[in-house]
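Q: Could you predict the 3D structure of DUF3581 domain-containing protein?
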Amino acid sequence: MFLDDFYQTRSHSAHLTSFVIQPEQASRFAKHIAGDFNPLHNPDSKRFCVPGDLLFAVSLMQLGLAKQMTFKFVGMLSDERELTFVPEQPDHYLIQDSDAKTFLSLSHQDCLTQDPQIIAPFIEAYVAFSGESFPHLLVPIMAEHNIMINPARPMVMYESMAVHFDQLPTENMRLAYAGYEIELQGKRAQVALKFSILDGDRQLGHGHKTMLLSGLRDYDPQAMQQVCDDYAQIKSSYAA
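A: Sure. Here are the predicted structure tokens for DUF3581 domain-containing protein:
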């Protein structure tokens, strides 16, 4: 399974597995799977954190795909530690370390499949969509609402995501962007990026990814373009 290269299992219970993510594994997942070149995912970054999408992906491999799933990122995982799925109540889990610090809270209602041949394509489709958040989806939204993040310290935080299946998932799932909703709160904004889950033209379900933007100021096209150019340069340098 393609995820085996991005985390190690440590111990097993009757149903779930504890696991460890190395910084190098987190960085490779961000770049190779999600197409996410945020410097925060570089192992040598002082503010390094594991991509939320990697915790999401491991969760699906452990629990399967459910009709209704929500994921809320509670804390930033910044170093190597053993993580465990902790059942909090029926259909609800926490990912915690040995000190009971929580990094992810998730609900998982009405499991549809635990077949990795179906789960893996959905993970790949979702994290590819998720990796497009910045700059491709968020920058036009910021321009439309005359806001932008601080170009000197761009902060875009992954807050949560949710998925609902109306029909059984298939091996041929793909995601299509389906618009957004935005809530402005002074110097902060909450943006929900919506998507449809499709097999061909048939809609199987829908969902959204919620991002938090902070340090907002009036939109400056030149400054924002420089942020985008810097991001593209990081991506190009890595590819080279």
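Q: Anything worth pointing out?
A: The chain is about 30% helix and 35% strand.
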